[in-house]
Structure prediction request, 180 residues.
Amino acid sequence: MLEVAPDLLGCVVSFGGCEGVIVETEAYHFTEPACHAYVGVTPRTAVLHGPPGTAYVYRSYGIHALLNAVCEAEGVGAAVLIRALEPTAGIEAMRMRRGAGELCNGPGKLTQALGIGLGENDTSLVSGPVRILRGEPLEYVTGPRIGITKAAELPWRFCALGSRDVSRPWPPGLRASLAA
DNA sequence: CATGGGATTGACT
DNA sequence: GTCAATCCCATGC
Prediction:
């Protein structure tokens, strides 16, 4: 999975006529406490332990939807959280949903921008409504994960270089690439 | 059956 | 920088 997460950078997420290039991901694995699958297989986390290539949409703080891509073999319990996109198509539709401001520079924002909701949970990323298309590999930097309270020190955050559509704080290496 | 936590965001001081 | 909003579900009694 630690190979899949950076591999997703540069891939395209497509949903409802909107598309965006993945520029930030975070890896989650059931062996570390930050992952929902850590507690074991439950009705909600079952999809995390399911077959790879499946979307796992989760509501955080009762408000925001977070989009994950399940990876690893069935029964492993691992996923890659998609934290940020760079919009490439359907931008007007995103603006209608999001209003003014940044569209996809945060996990909760990108789902709202694309219109992805809890209804897309447990759908295929290959043949379902939400699709992930293979794209060009991107250069990236790693860093600690953001916004979690457990195991935040693991360097399982992957940010594409040269994109401003990434949630802050940016790792030092990414700041340098933006300045250039 | 009741309670608390959670991978976030946006507004206010 | 700090604080509140708000819903699902895992855990505990």
Summary: The mean pLDDT of chain A is 87. The beta strands of chain A are 12-15, 18-29, 55-60, 64-71, 78-89, 131-133, 140-143, 157-160.
